[in-house]
Amino acid sequence: KAGVTQTPRYLIKTRGQQVTLSCSPISGHRSVSWYQQTPGQGLQFLFEYFSETQRNKGNFPGRFSGRQFSNSRSEMNVSTLELGDSALYLCASSLWEMGGREQFFGPGTRLTVL
Amino acid sequence: GENVEQHPSTLSVQEGDSAVIKCTYSDSASNYFPWYKQELGKRPQLIIDIRSNVGEKKDQRIAVTLNKTAKHFSLHITETQPEDSAVYFCAASTNDKIIFGKGTRLHILP
User: Fold this and answer.
1) In the predicted model, is pLDDT for residue B78 greater than 80?
2) Burial class (CB within 10 angstroms; exposed 0-12, middle 13-18, buried 19+) of B46
3) Pseudo-torsion of CA B72, A56, A104, B45, nearest 10°?
4) Which residue from A104, A88, A83, A90 is spatially nearest to A27, judged by alpha carbons?
């Protein structure tokens, strides 16, 4: 079974721009969660999508948004980029809702904001 | 807000010795406690997990203990090997959200 994939793997943007990241979960998995990983803050939960609905949201500003399609693929969008948004963005999938279940992580998208 | 504290942030042990990483959580609704290992440049991978109705779980050289009363759980790695060098993250999950610790960088010294 193919693992979780993310595209693109690397991105360089400038402040004020917007960016869209994509995540394809393991086949059959219906939950996709997004995380921001930085050296200082570790892994921080952004949001979870299950069956095309945002189920949970972490403490991030409204500039961070996402969606999920009927095939469970998910996209994350960050608008009006700030320097502090530079990070590794990881998505993870699980068979059902992520609460209480193992999540399988993708390789991440490394975003650099200049 | 709710949080998970993880200690130490860096740990160096001699090959063959044991390593212990400790986490405390604040949300009493947490019922699932996974540990993830992230090797340099790679994605996090689950190495062991424990649910709130269990006090201890072991898988070969890795064990996790949970003290619900103290809101404390620990990862124990025995007979450490070079391939154990990585960053380890603990997490506490409720049915609706998950909070990760900030990670422990484990160095295995030859």
Assistant:
1) yes
2) middle
3) -30
4) A104
Interacting residues of A61 by C-beta distance below 8 A, sequence separation 6+? none
At A80-95, the pLDDT tens digits run 999 999 999 999 999 8
Amino acid at A111: L
Give the alpha-carbon dihedral of A26, B75, B2, A85, to 10 degrees: -50
First to last CA, chain B: 41
Tally the C-alpha atoms within 13 A of residue B77's C-alpha that lie toward its C-beta: 26
Q: Which of these, A5, A14, A25, lies nearest to A80 by C-alpha position?
A: A14
* Gyration radius of chain A over CA positions: 13
Q: Are strands A53-57 and A64-68 parallel, antiparallel or unpaired?
A: unpaired
Residue B1 has pLDDT above 80, yes or no: no
Output the pLDDT for position B66. 96
Determine the average pLDDT of the residues in B77-96. Answer: 95
Question: Chain A, 23-42: which have a CB under 8 Å from a chain B CB?
Answer: 33, 35, 40-42
Search chain B and give the residue with CA nearest A106: B43
For B46, nearest residue in chain A (alpha carbons): A102
